[in-house]
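Q: I'm building a small set of examples for a reading group on sequence design. Run inverse folding on the following structure and report the sequence directly after it, with nothing in between.
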């Protein structure tokens, strides 16, 4: 129901206005979704305050591919992937007023198209969720041109997937960035499965010894139940596959 109300409100927000003009001067509340919550007007005040804070994060800067853009307001010369993505998800409710999804182009163009920028990208090795953000933005706005750009014309999402997959610790990239500390590793698969099996065994033993109430968790590899056994054998198969690949 709440999502339906938002969709209806968005129908009354202009989408063809000049973005540069909208982002100058004072925030025009009439262009934003209008809240209706008479039960608690303080929540309405909080709602408008949130938009005003977001308006203060719209930044203009020279030497940047996409300007204006949404800035986290920490360092003037630095942009953060996760922070920007969360701001984009907020801005999807006012796509004609805020440079939301466009802000991601500062990452795409610097990382993938090697275009120069005055901005430093903080932690480019953080696993991003560009695809999710682009998809959520499209569901709200229906902007097919944007989807065509990132998936067909520029193929930003596909290219970034392969670029990120090849990233190594300590790599020096062609743009300004923080030190690369992460790289793709299979250690998560191994330790994740080991911890799961060990925790499951500990909980089962604790129930048997009346240390904790009954949880219904089976003893790995021994308790009856075909589904549990199949899942555990599958996990062990993944661990063995990873080990063989390393050797």
């Amino acid at each position: 129901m709440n999502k339906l109300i938002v969709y209806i409100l968005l129908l009354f927000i202009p989408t063809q206005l000049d973005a540069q003009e909208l982002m100058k001067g004072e925030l025009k509340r009439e262009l934003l979704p209008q809240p209706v919550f008479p039960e608690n007007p303080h929540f309405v005040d909080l709602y408008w305050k949130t938009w005003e804070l977001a308006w203060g994060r719209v930044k203009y800067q020279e030497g940047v591919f996409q300007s204006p853009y949404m800035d986290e307001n920490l360092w003037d010369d630095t942009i953060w992937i996760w922070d920007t993505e969360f701001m984009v998800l907020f801005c999807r409710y006012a796509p004609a007023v805020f440079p939301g999804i466009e802000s991601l182009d500062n990452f795409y163009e610097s990382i993938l198209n090697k275009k120069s920028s005055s901005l430093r990208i903080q932690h480019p090795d953080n696993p991003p969720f560009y695809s999710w953000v682009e998809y959520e933005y499209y569901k709200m706005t229906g902007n097919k041109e944007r989807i065509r750009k990132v998936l067909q014309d520029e193929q930003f999402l596909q290219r970034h997937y392969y670029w990120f997959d090849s990233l190594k610790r300590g790599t020096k990239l062609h743009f300004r960035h923080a030190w690369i500390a992460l790289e793709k590793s299979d250690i998560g698969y191994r330790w994740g499965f080991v911890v799961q099996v060990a925790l499951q065994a500990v909980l089962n033993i604790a129930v048997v010894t009346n240390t904790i109430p009954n949880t219904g968790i089976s003893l790995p590899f021994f308790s009856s139940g075909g589904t549990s056994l199949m899942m555990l054998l599958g996990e062990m198969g993944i661990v063995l596959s990873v080990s063989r690949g390393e050797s």
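The chain has ten helices and four strands.
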